[in-house]
Amino acid sequence: MNYTLIGSLTSPYVRKIRLVMHDLDFQLEVVNYLEETGNDYLKSVNPVNKLPVLMDGEKVILDSRIIYYYLAQKNNWAPLTLDEENILSAIDGAMDTSISLFSLKRGGLDLASGNSYIQRQIERVPNILNFLTPWVKTLDEKNPKHWNFLTMSLYSYLYWVEFRGMYNLQDHPVLKEFLQKFKDAPGVLETTIPA
Asked: pLDDT tens-digit profile of 12-24?
């Protein structure tokens, strides 16, 4: 089977799917949705107008979480437990918030404006990272079972948030250590955001 993954080289959502597909046969179709042509193409294949998109023949799967579930079913991967779903929701929550804040900042909004909605979003990130820290402490990079969709998702997010300068992890040494411990995991080098 040969999949086509439509995405960008910088999106943490795309990266986590590229990581989970590391051992699968797929083609990456890079789209720059900031350019008119790329944006028009993305809208033509995904009514949600978001990346990533997985094409499996005529089948189109629109969201990273659904892409993972689809691939898990097709490849007989064990389903996520309720606790794992909660972890994934927290990671995705931090990712959604950080990407929204990055987009607002790139669009010219002053994130330090005192806007209560913006402030609530900013406060979400450290709260989520504090929630994730006890789980991260249980991970061992030498255990291949610990390099899975959850850790791939967290790695993709933490790398992105530092790369974009959207959050300083200095107050989260366990998470900084996590990035170091898993930097040589399968697929990480190949999916690194281009400088």
From this structure: 999 999 999 999 9
Q: What is the pLDDT of residues 114-135, one digit of tens each?
A: 899 999 999 999 999 999 999 9
Q: pTM of the full predicted structure? A: 0.95
- DSSP 8-state code for residue 149: H
The domain total for the chain is: 2
Pairing of strands 26-30, 3-7: parallel
- pLDDT the model gives residue 159: 98
CATH of the domain at 131: 1.20.1050.10
Instruction: Please state, as a whole number, how many other Cβ atoms lie within 10 Å of the Cβ of residue 19.
Output: 22
Residue that is last in its domain, among 55, 75, 95? 75
What residue type is 195 in one-letter code? A
